[in-house]
Design a protein that fits this description.
64% helix; 219 residues
Length: 219
Amino acid sequence: MVAARVRDGGDQASETYNRILEEVQAISCATLFAPVISSEAVQAMILVSGWSDNGWLSGGHAVRMAMELSMHKAWPKLHRRIKSNKADPVLDRNLVIASRTWFCLYLFEHQMSYGIGRPAVLKDDESIRECRLLLQHPLAIEDDMRLVSTVELMAIRERVNNVLSPMEGPVKDEHFIRLHEADDEFATWYATWDHAFSQKYEDAGERTPGAFVSQLIVG
């Protein structure tokens, strides 16, 4: 479905896309009344949500599907194994998949919710805490740097949003204090990940300062 829509580009949706879309929607509807049996089903629902006109509702369904599989518990378990030097590329495979999927879901759900002015369901809690430790696992992949750094960025944004909204009254001194704190947090995040990406890629010297982080954010 996604590939057909990308191929259509900005033109009118093709018959191929419309027919595949109908099939995808039928499969998606069936997940409302059937048990969730695989992480792939959650990943698919994230894609469906991202390529739907009203993705907020289907994104919420993806959250529930993930919780049905206890994906919100995956990273805390994997986090403890990494901290205790017990990470194993065989035993931890499912935990890594679940954690990575949950991180993606956290990002997407926040971007979708903030984009349409609705509260995000997922929170900055132990299900994402210290997510950068995923990079120390033997099953970490190159794209995980981009994933966990953006999760950290979104968590900072969430903390600021929780303090400043809903803004129903006058601006208070504590609001300015929190904004100054957030400015320091964003600056630290930028410096940390700009350095990390600059160290990772050989052409770092050919990039302008901050190019890695800019690419990280805009994709």
